[in-house]
Amino acid sequence: MIFYTLFEIVSYLINPLVMLVIVQFVLSLLITFNVVNMHNEFVHAIWRAINAILDPILRPVRRIMPDTGTVDLSPMALIIGLSILQIILKNLALSSL
Prior knowledge:
Strand content: under 5%
Number of helices: 3
Order of helices and strands: HHH
Number of domains: 1
Helix content: over 70%
Largest sheet: none
Distance between the termini: 6 Å
Low-confidence stretches: none
Shape: elongated
Radius of gyration: 16 Å
């Protein structure tokens, strides 16, 4: 029962985090292709807030990942790692029931 509770708690934390990583990716594409302008204060504030939340989480992943030049694969590695954690906790929860 404790693993199921732990799985539920971690899932409630992981799901919004994955969505935030996806939003950061889409926003970075929009900024790169000049669809949205960083001189807009609203866009700049959202970009800074998302990076302030995700940078402490992505920084250790970036240190582990090899340097790929301009392509940052750390968000994808983070999503995969969080998904693996969810699967492990889910299987532990199901086996303890």
